[in-house]
Write a structure and sequence with these properties.
Blueprint (H helix, E strand, L loop, with lengths): L23 H56 L52 H25 L2 H27 L3 H13 L1 H4 L3 H17 L3 H21 L4 H15 L4 H21 L4 H15 L3 H10 L8 H14 L5 H13 L3 H12 L13 E3 L5 E3 L1
Antiparallel strand pairs: 1-2
Amino acid sequence: KALPRRQLPVEAGDGAMYTPLLTHEGQVDVLDRLDFVLRNITELRQEVEELRKSLQHLAAEIVGEVKSHLEESQKVTRRRRFPFPRERSDSTGSSSIYFTASSGTANTDDGESEGGYTTANAESDYDRESEQESEEGEDEVSCETVRTARRDSLDLVNEDETHLMLDSSVEEGMGQLLQQADQLHNGDDQEKREGFQLLLNNKLVYADQKDFLWRLARAHSDMYEITEDTEEKKSYASDGKQEIEAALQKWDQSAECHQWYAILCGQLSEHESIQKRIQVGYVFKEHIDKAISLKPDDPKSYYLLGRWCYQVSHLGWLEKKTAAALFEAPPTATVQDALQNFLRVEELSPGFSKAGRVYIAKCYRDLGNNSAALLWMNLASELPVNTKEVAVTAVYFTDTGNMIIY
């Protein structure tokens, strides 16, 4: 195609000649340059396509290697199991209603801890002495690799293939993670710390999963129990409460979410005024009732409700007056109510908690049935002592025949 010619002024006349902007040699040169550019663009597109295919293949290999690494780690973990089964942890975490004032009447819970429901009875798979640090490092590396692979593969693999591959991998990985978290929750203080860190390391991957979130809240409750510093306790309880609140907004029909929300509210209220503790008591009762309605065969919820009833039945004068001033209908419960809940725990899971049997004995003592109280104290003594619960050191009768438990 010929290039446009220069326009000549009108006064140039009919005899003027139009001359091209470029000579023939200039036009050829321009066409050669355009052809060169087009060839380079074509070659560049081919190289980009080859690079894209290579990266797709690389992303698939990374995901496969991570999956194989997780499976191998699980096999190694199983081989490290202790030759003898670990005794079941009887820790029950902190979830009392905390109506007892810091001054005035004495606390009625006798020091037992009441939270910490065990969701799995598996033995601990960790060798705490020689390989603890290396395993923690492997967990962190594995978690970071999974996150990186997920981010990269989203842009490199077809969308349908990505969802299928990642959904399967995430589901399998989360199952193994939750099993480990349950095992560590049932262990000693060090294992609880490991479980807490394990869940934190994987929060970015599983933060949208219900079963992960309530276990993360439970781990915060565990850290509250084993931490001595007051400010750290408050921080763990507050952070755990925020985690479980977010979960409840999406999964209001989860019994575990309601249960651990109640427990963490109770733990946080330990550091509040008596008015706040009474208010939290109503919240606690509401969520435990909801948990029981959603999962009526869970002994943990009945144990917590029994503790609530027992404490309310032993409210002191100051607590009762404060509750009456704040609410039209102060909380009411009897020792008989508490006893029925604790007996329900034994019906659902005999020997569920040493503290639960001690409370059954306390209820019978308060009701004047000393023979039944002594029977349940003997049954409680058959269960292993846990560091989070007060061991029964003596049971004896006074000269008047009244049984003393301390």
